[in-house]
Amino acid sequence: MPDIGFRIKKKREECGLTQEELAVKLGYKSKTTIAKIENGTNDIVQSKVIAFASALNTTPAYLMGWEDEKEEPKEVKREKESLMDAREEQLLSSFRSLNDLGKDKVMDYAADITTNPRYTIPPTIMRETPVLIAAHNDHANEPGQQDKMHRDAGRMAEELRQRRLERFLQTKKEGDFHD
Prior knowledge:
Blueprint: H1 4-14, H2 19-26, H3 31-38, H4 46-55, H5 60-64, H6 74-96, H7 100-113, H8 123-126, H9 145-173
InterPro entries: Cro/C1-type_HTH, Lambda_DNA-bd_dom_sf
Keywords: DNA-binding
Protein name: Helix-turn-helix transcriptional regulator
């Protein structure tokens, strides 16, 4: 099973970062520390695992080897990103082509439309209520139990997301939410 150094190197390369760039992102003085972590010479301190995960757009659980990364195929991911980026770029490009009077008019319209429930996502759907999700058992120190608890917590989180989506769709169907 690949170790944390291997996973860090893999994610760094996927992100297109050099060891030096990652070192700067994480506040290290040189790439040497990153190189030593990647080749297993240095251990990573526990408090840095979250920082590494954030810098590498992954989860601490993936870096620690507790779970495999669930990724969409790169083509699907790229297509989703490009569609979203294209809309945002088009909006920004149009906005930048306006003079100050036009920009003020767009800002007024945006303020107006974002307060109209017909055009906005309800706050209860947009802002998920924080929920503590935990999985535990009386045998946490036995082999494999921590992995099982981690999977259980992930499953509970997915079920919560699914219930929220179903509630949103039901609300929309009942007419309390308008397109």
